[in-house]
Amino acid sequence: MNKSELIDAIASKTGLTKSSVGQVVNTLMGEVVNAVSQGQLVTLVGFGTFRSVVRAGREVKNPKTGEKITIATQMAPRFSAGSTFKEHVAANAKMKV
Q: I need a surface site. Which of 26, 37, 40, 94 has the fewest CB within 10 A?
């Protein structure tokens, strides 16, 4: 499911217009990105938690040339699924296996 399909699904289930649902989805995503980029934790109970983590700098090798490259320390986003989300996915996976 992509963003457009998500908006369509929410609009059909709520009776809201696609335009208003699109604004809400865009605002939600923007607020999550802004909060996480500022180091804040965003927790949606039952769904999951968004956070930023520090990825340590490291030295890697360019596979084409074999040259060593240093990658600087950087911030990266992380998502941890909530228990309700995990349980629902696990229950549906059992049905398909």
A: 94
